[in-house]
């Protein structure tokens, strides 16, 4: 059976500050979606959060970019914003950039990733959700999962994966896309995806079956809004097992924390810490950035699960290392490479300070 999995998310208010989601907001979202599910629009759903981001995980048969599904998400976010406003949560309605729905949530603030596929005999899915970081944070993990044999031994020893995977890469500044075949073209691909603030892995496909293996959200809030409203806090769906990497291969990149853009005021580099859903509560310097992973088996589109995949002792060392990395980065205070380079900063007083000091700059001898 053909099924569509949609993950649509938005920050519609933080509790307290940007550190967590309020239970009343999550309850409101569950109520909104439960009402609609009775109409038969959805096969199943799961409402969750990552830090201050509300996450709607939905299965249905409307295909990707369905107006009905996007409207359901938008209406849910609008209703939840009312709850957030009543509680005077921080930044209530933060990610809703438009006043009214106009056919899609794309370009309106929420993050979205969707994929349609034929459900396999066993359909294993992992959904990654991050807080306090940018779209592009999935580039390195997706590269390791689908192109690095030091991470994914299946690429070497599993016959059904040996042909490799194709990466669809988006240039979000020029609005262009290109597909690279791994392993043949990895050197070319890395020139681009090594710059994740501009080039993002949008989707990954199996090269032989052409089946979709992974899809990520690539919306950049600051580019859409033309100002800083919050970080993108992206999501990513990965299909696992069979001719795709095993669950353990998909989780493995997160055992070695990397530095990503985000953290305080969206303007710093910090470690991406893998945590359980209850521990997705970025507090220290509004961070460090977090990633959670929910696992499901799909059965006729029903979401069997979730399992909270980073709620496991084997990620303790990664969390410890991420905290050590956080300390090391914090040591730099307002200096790069902790603070982002000027052109990447979400917040800056540079124009005002420059103007004030205009007359005081003199030519060098
Ligand atoms: P969020 O994008 O998670 O709202 O974080 C915003 C921020 O600037 C935290 O310091
Ligand atoms: P406020 O200026 O709204 O307090 O935001 C600061 C912050 O948390 C960055 O998003
Ligand atoms: Mg927030
Ligand atoms: Mg957030």
List keywords for this structure.
9 helices; 24% helix; alpha+beta; 9-stranded mixed beta sheet; 4-stranded antiparallel beta sheet; 365 residues; binds magnesium ion; binds 1,3-dihydroxyacetonephosphate
Description:
- The chain is 24% helix and 28% strand.
- The chain is an alpha+beta fold.
- Strands 5, 6, 7, 8, 9, 10, 13, 14 and 15 form a 9-stranded mixed β-sheet that branches.
- A hairpin with a 5-residue loop joins strand 11 (259-262) and strand 12.
- The structure holds 1,3-dihydroxyacetonephosphate (13P) (2 copies) and magnesium ion (2 copies).
- One 1,3-dihydroxyacetonephosphate is lined by residues 18, 265.
In short:
The chain is built from nine helices and 15 strands.
Helix percentage range: 10-25%
What is the alpha-carbon Rg in Å? 20 Å
Mean pLDDT: 96
| Regions with little confidence, pLDDT below 50 for 5+ residues | none
Structural class: alpha+beta
For the largest beta-sheet, the strand count, sense and barrel status come to:
9 strands, mixed
Please trace the helix and strand order, writing H or E for each element.
Answer: EHEEHEEHHEEHEEHEHEEEEEHH
**Number of helices, counting only DSSP H or I runs of 4 residues or more:** 9
Q: Overall 3D geometry?
A: globular
Q: What is the beta-strand fraction?
A: 25-35%
Q: Which molecules are bound besides the chains?
A: 1,3-dihydroxyacetonephosphate, magnesium ion
Q: First CA to last CA: what distance?
A: 74 Å
Number of strand segments: 15
